[in-house]
Amino acid sequence: xxxxxxxxxxxxxxxxxxxxxxxxxxxxxxxxxxxxxxxxxxxxxxxxxxxxxxxxxxxxxxxxxxxxxxxxxxxxxxxxxxxxxxxxxxxxxxxxxxxxxxxxxxxxxxxxxxxxxxxxxxxxxxxxxxxxxxxxxxxxxxxxxxxxxxxxxxxxxxxxxxxxxxxxxxxxxxxxxxxxxxxxxxxxxxxxxxxxxxxxxxxxxxxxxxxxxxxxxxxxxxxxxxxxxxxxxxxxxxxxxxxxxxxxxxxxxxxxxxxxxxxxxxxxxxxxxxxxxxxxxx
Length: 282
Ligand code: AMP
What we know:
- 40% of the residues lie in helices and 20% in strands.
- By secondary structure, the protein is of the alpha/beta class.
- A six-stranded parallel β-sheet has the order 1-4-3-2-5-6, sandwiched between helices.
- The protein binds adenosine monophosphate.
- Adenosine monophosphate binds next to helix 2 and strand 5.
């Protein structure tokens, strides 16, 4: 696997492949790779002639400076995992390479961005759109892989691709969890021992809510989830909403959609964790 730092070098390599009609798979990440990321990488490797992974901690999507500073960085370990997975190229640009000038573009995603993560992390999705559009323009992949763990991000990326009329297939990959059920996240490494132990309560509550969804109204289930999580002294729910998975808008009744998804953000101390669950069969 080759490590590449500049756009010029990456594009001269990728041009060779595209001129031979070889397919390019792409996985954008912020590094501190774990098995969740690697699931995306494995698919990119398996489904394309060559696979490119980017590692770039994008400053424009962090609305919390402290979160950016403390974001875990584990480059050497990341390279090893990618090498083992058979990935072809890892693109690790500097901030100047991605943003030679400040990116002042303002995207608009309407109702998709005014709810949940968009509401509680102002500017976050504009930053995501800036970096994803930039990276897709640099790599020009045939297929780009995103995780359902970031459910709203996936919807925003699909909308971005539609708005910019980009010729790329967005491939969604299911949430990968730790053995105990906690959704894998680079931020999990920042949890202290007790927070890590209690964080499992988030996925446990979501799984239990799936058992209860047949008997509860939407509002009653939302209350139950929030109260249950907040009863744990290590955890505090920022939001929990049950939305129509196809447009991310809150539903009032189960009959409002055949794709209800519960999306949650929870603080364990200062670490913010997100997760979601599909209430299938409703
Ligand atoms: P990040 O490095 O957090 O920006 O994540 C890079 C990509 O990996 C995004 O598309 C995430 O949705 C995806 N991802 C992160 N964690 C998981 C997980 N536990 N399961 C599936 N995909 C994930």
